[in-house]
Amino acid sequence: MKLKSLSHHFLKVAALALATATATAQDKLPTAQVNTTGLAVTDDTVTVGQLHSATGTMAISETGSIQAEQLAIDQINAAGGVLGRQIKVIKEDGASDWPTFAEKAKKLLVSDKVGTVFGCWTSASRKAVLPVFEKENGMLYYPTFYEGLEQSKNVIYTGQEATQQIIAGLDWIAKEKKAKTFYLIGSDYIWPRTSMKIARKHIENVLKGTVVGEEFYALGSTSFGSLINKIKLKKPDVIYAAVVGGSNVSFYKQLAAAGINASKQTLLTISVTEDEVLGIGGENLAGFYSAMKYFQSLDNPNNVEFVKAFKAKYGKDSVIGDVTQAGYLGPWLWKAAVEKAKSFDIDKIVEASPGLELTTAPEGYVKLHPNHHLWSKLRIGQWQKDGQAKVLYESELIEPDPFPKGYQ
Amino acid sequence: MKTDHDNVLEVEDLGVSFDGFKAVDGFNFYLAQNHVHVIIGPNGAGKTTVLDLICGKTLATSGSIKFKGKELRGVREYRIVRAGIGRKFQNPSIYENLTVFENLELSHPTGRGVIGCLMFRRTASIKKQCDDVAEQIGLADKLDTEAGILSHGQKQWLEIGMLLMQDPEIIMLDEPVAGMSVRERTETALLIRKISKDRSVIVIEHDMEFVREIADRVTVMHLGKILAEGSMEKVSQDPKVIEVYIGH
Amino acid sequence: MGEYTSEELQSIFIMQGFSGLSLFSVLLLMGLGLALIFGQMGVINMAHGEFMALGAYTVYFCSHLTETYAPTFGPYYFVAAIGLAFVVCAALGALVEWLMIRHLYHRPLDTLLATWGLSLILQQSYRSIFGAREVTPTLPEWLMGSYNVKEGLDIPINGMFVLGLSIVVTIALITFMYRSAFGLRLRATVQNRKMSAAVGINTGKVDRLAFALGCGIAGIAGAAFTTIGSTGPDSGSRYIVDAFLVVVSGGTASLLGCLASAFGIAQAQSILEFFLEGTKGKVATLLVIVIALMIRPQGLFPSKVRGN
Amino acid sequence: MPLLFRTLFKTRGEALAFGGFLLLLLVVLPLALPVFRLNLVGKYLTFGFVAIGLVLLWGRCGILSLGQGVFFGLGGYCMAMFLKLEASDPVTTAIQSTPGIPDFMDWNQITKLPMYWEPFKSLPFTIFAIFVVPAVIAFIIGWALFRRRVGGVYFAIITQSIALIFSLGIDGNQGYTGGRNGITDLRTLCGWDIRSENAQYILYFLCVVLLFTVALGAKYIINTRLGRVLVAIRDREDRVRFSGYDVAMIRAFIFAFAAMLSGIGGALFVLQVGFMSPSIVGIIPSIEMVIFTAVGGRLSVLGAILGCLIVNFGKTTFSEAYPDLWLYLMGGTFIAVVMFFPNGLAGLLEKIPTSKGKYAALFARFKKTTPVVTTKTTPISDEN
After folding, report:
1. Is residue C291 in some structural domain?
2. Which chains, if any, share at least 3 CB pairs under 8 A with chain C?
3. Residues within 8 A of C (CB atoms), B 59-98 only
4. B near A: at least 3 beta-carbon pairs less than 8 Å apart
5. What's the whole-model pTM score?
6. What is the residue range of C121's domain?
């Protein structure tokens, strides 16, 4: 079933692969040449690792990335693999536990000698594995939008760093809604805190607005009654939210129940994707805005193909969020880098990576910056009752800037 | 009544109430040296509560408990024990999976602090003391028996033996002969008479024959108060006492 | 707070009072089933949260069925789903009691650990059956939104619903405990198990029913919480510590203790969260409870039965 | 010497088991396993410190703490603070707004090292703190609770809440604690690269040697009068109290001792894993540590260490192959252990050579028809 529905896409992919010149069975490069550092590469296969939480609290979020990465790998294999080698995946479960992530990362790199790893979701898990990747000189494709403040030779960040996601979104809402006062709300960990720090600087220094409240709630908090009353008291023009996980659901349900809905209140969030809407329910979000680089409803040929392929593989009810799409980019970017370098060696991939372009990305055109982040656009989507977003705004390509001056 | 230091324990105006219910009220009690003092009374009279109050298990709401002139109210249980008051519970309370010897040894007062426990060594004198006590309570041939398989009466004796190891000045026994055979009762009575040579003993008991055998003095309690006090002959002829016992 | 009008402050005061009440009803609903089991057998059921999640999934399942087969029934299915959640959870509870708990009555700490093992299994089975992602049942229109008393004063309908439900459940439980023959047997067993057995009460059956009832109430709680929270494989674990603390602070003696401690904790948390920020409010609440428990470990309403 | 030997080991078999196990960890595993796997074994063994504490506290003294992760965390954080300060010298952190302070502080606009971080620049102080901080905090908590006779289920729930408060507190103060990400990217100990293979071998051996020292210490305690008093407290609390022992003090002491062991484990964990995070101190890891102990045998020191190794080994290997089945297996194993083998693996191993009679006795206990509620655990067999 997959083959039929995907054939169109495969043709295009295969054409692309041909165009980039190497990956056909006839002129396959010898293994000794493409693999000088003892990675798990044979004449026919290359082994890669996938490291996400299949169990535990983060399984909720990471499922989409696991699926998208697998889809990309299947498609690449169907189109002839990478340098003529089929990709074999070793899946490891980080179990939402950071030491386990570190342990499994080490296992993938040291025991399995994988060519690259697609994985991690939370900042904490990335921070836990980062020293392992740097020490063992592995490669990690990390899909989540995150707080920035990091740049590593061994990591390619396929999601947006904080400034890419925040600044254009705030500019838009300030212009569209004439917003002057903002209430910042986040879950209590580094990504929301750093994001809110950047948001506050931008609001105060550039937009000349005021922040009337800034609060962080423990992950898993379920009661927001007091917070909602404070919001009602302060009457901000915009609620700017970065609440994640199960708290998200409680937050929006209680907001809706307290009579705070889109007709009375503008709300912009940087943490709600189609995945989260499944749990929150479209009716509780209708009219609120999300700032993301990708929405499932994006209308371009790449995305139409991608959504079709994804639903064919994972069922018609499955949804695709921002991170899922970013996860999908990982294997394609790695393939492009390997084929440009004509080698699986990590150092050569790193060397080949800056400037790589992907024209087939569902989000449109992306380009890899020398700082290992992607140039990408920001979109503002307005949530509809059916759980999909209507895209109202699309920025130009934004340069990634993980260490933004003036925002620290 | 004498209040000089012939009395090792002087309890005055003792009272305790649980949510307004006065379990013990205006209780006065004087324990003379080397006496066996028995407290009797119908169920619910507050006898066990009195023992609980003296040994600190329950905190009194009024009154005073003086042991050799020192106030015991508010003092923690283990300190009361260390001061020299031992208590046996109604149901035999022993360490069932230790041997008789280990039960006795564990009750020896050397090294009861944390450090003391770590430093504790089984010296010859401790061993001898255990043997002597075992002799006294008739368990000399059962030293290596696991305490759990002793008969009910032997368990009661073992617990008395554990108190004797501490060499207290007052021993409080809560129904020591409940569930014993006639022969065991006789032996227990002898044991109590014997141990009271060097110390005072408070006994709670229902069995009047047994009380007659051991008591130097008897206090009758009813509804938390003292009904009568004196020698067994005297209280058994007290019309109030007769009424309470026959009335029930 | 000079910058606000007195009318605004008044509205906030009322709404803040209501959010305290609403949190109270949430805590109460969570705690009741647990308290019943704890009072009956001195056992903390660590899988309590998973029973709540089962209740929530039951509602989701019903919502799914209704949408697929009987869309006209949409506005009413929720009430039926709550009933079904009770039945499903009580049935599972009875099964668990029969298979596991009854063998462990004389070892309360081990029961606590065994039920934790059970919670792992339940969580993973939810993940296998319903997927790792969170789900949300389609709630009937009448449960959504808020009741607008006047400008700036909104009372959430789902909050009122949960409050109403918790009152109904509490009254039903109290009536059941103090007015029914089974309630009498149950209370008798708590007070003196041997004696109850001697006068012909089947204490094993009483235990099973009490456990099932406790789990059933957890199911109702879980079902009701679909209106305010999320439903996922581990959503139960988000509630458990709060529920445990409600029960432990209440003391073992009575449902009254549970009621009082739920009220106290809810008000403390609601007020602290209003004046402190986010996590700090929660930490402060927990600290207050733990310190209170250190000072008064027997809880608000300790058992008055004479100890041995 | 023979006297000490007899205090430590009751039987020859026990001494042999101990020696054999030591041989396995010190000789066989280092020869058989690649350094990466050996490092994992080292990580599992750090939980052994907690488990030994739980044998004394829970198995022997009947106090179930669901908050041992807190003390593991305190020890670990002390170590991590020292290593982080060493990793944050002004040269390597030159790109920060404030060079010379840990990176996460810089991200949180903290411009000066907080005062209580200062002493952790000194290694002797850090080692002192690893031993003392968990012990003192545990002693205060324990003393407050045990004096008021809090025990059983209440103690379990209160310690669990403390674990929640502790992890929330770390989360909520990320400028000072690293927050949810924890303290990461630790590299050197006094200039010695702890991530090198060489270092990992040395740290592994250090861990094994310390663990066995602690295990012998625990066995010593078990076989002295203190050990007997602990069991007596578990089974007959009132009798012990009325034999003149200060039960609250003894309990608080053993709680503090167990906490100190956990702290040592935490510090070694950080050295071997290279970071510290609140995810290893909260409610779930705290319960998992109890599981390790229960599976291995709550009464046996050696059993508890074995439990840590086996459960974690199972977790690693089984979750690689069947991640979904792992939780079923873990939950099921745990229920089975608690219900049928309360003395865990160690209890089972001891049973093997004996006759059928003991099995019958074992199962008879679960067939009791009239359940009796008491606050005591039934005396479980006490051989070790």
Report:
1. no
2. A, B, D
3. 91
4. no
5. 0.89
6. 22-146+154-236
In 3D space, the residue among D176, D186, D223 whose CA is nearest the CA of residue D10 turns out to be D223
Task: Please indicate if any CB of chain C lies within 8 Å of the CB of A273.
Answer: no
Distance in angstroms (rounded) separating the CA atoms of residues B183 and A16: 104
Q: CB under 8 Å to C283, separation ≥6 — which residues? A: D165, D168, D169, D172
Helix (H, G, I), strand (E, B) or coil at B20: coil
Angle at D318 between CA D315 and CA D324, to 5 degrees: 95
Which residues are CB-neighbours of A206 under 8 A, at least 6 positions away?
A: none
CA dist list (Å): C292 to B117, B215, C44, C299: 33, 48, 20, 9
C-alpha angle A318-A324-A327 in degrees, rounded to nearest 5 = 140
DSSP A101-161: HHHHHHIIIIIS--S-EEE--SHHHHHHHHHHHHHHT--EEE-S-B------TTEEE-S-B
Contact of C8 with C152, CB cutoff 8 Å: yes
Low-confidence residues in chain D, pLDDT < 50: 354-384
Which residues in chain C (90-109) have CB-CB distances under 8 A to chain D?
Answer: 100, 102-109
> Total structural domains in chain C?
1
Work out the minimum CA distance from A33 to partner chain D, whole angstroms.
Answer: 28
Question: Which residue in D has a C-alpha nearest to residue A196's C-alpha?
Answer: D108
> Exposed/middle/buried for A169, CB within 10 Å: 0-12, 13-18, 19+?
buried
Predicted ipTM > 0.90: no
Q: Are D26 and D205 in contact (CB under 8 A)?
A: yes
| pLDDT (tens digit per residue) in A274-311 | 988 988 888 889 999 999 999 999 999 999 999 999 99
DSSP state of D26: I
The number of residues making up chain B comes to 248
- The 3-state DSSP class for residue B175 equals coil
Query: Which of B77, B106, B166 is the closest to D241 by Cβ?
Result: B77
Task: Decide if D181 and A111 are in contact by the 8 Å CB cutoff.
Answer: no
Chain C window 279-298: which residues touch D at a Cβ cutoff of 8 Å? 279-280, 282-283, 286-287, 289-290, 293-295, 297
Residues of A in Cβ contact (< 8 Å) with D273:
99, 102-103
Q: Tokens 């529905």 label which residue? A: A5
The pair of structure tokens assigned to C52 is 């709540």
Instruction: Give the number of other CB atoms < 10 A from CB of residue A5.
Output: 14
In whole angstroms, give the CA distance from residue A14 to residue A23.
9
Size of interface B-D (CB pairs under 8 A): 76
Determine, yes or no, domain membership for C260.
no
Task: Calculate how close chain D gets to B236, using CA atoms only, in Å.
Answer: 33
Return the amino acid letter for B81. Answer: V
- Of A56, A226, A248, nearest to C274 by CB-CB distance is A226
The chain B residue lying nearest C306, using CA atoms, is B18
Set of chain D residues whose Cβ sits within 8 Å of the Cβ of A191 = none
CB-based contact C230 A250, cutoff 8 Å = yes
CB pairs under 8 A between A and C: 138
Spatial contact of A243 and A186, defined as CB atoms under 8 Å apart: yes
In a domain, C272, yes or no: no
Q: Tell me: the pLDDT tens digits for D8-48?
A: 887 788 888 889 999 999 999 999 999 988 999 999 999 99
Can you spell out the DSSP letters for D272-286? HHS-B-GGGTSHHHH
Residue C117 located in a structural domain: yes
Q: First and final CA of chain A: distance in angstroms?
A: 51
- Token output for C107: 């070892």
- Of the pLDDT bands very low, low, confident and very high (cuts 50, 70, 90), residue A9 is low
**Band (B247; pLDDT cuts 50, 70, 90):** low
Q: Are A121 and A62 in contact (CB under 8 A)?
A: yes
CB count in 10 Å sphere of residue C93: 29
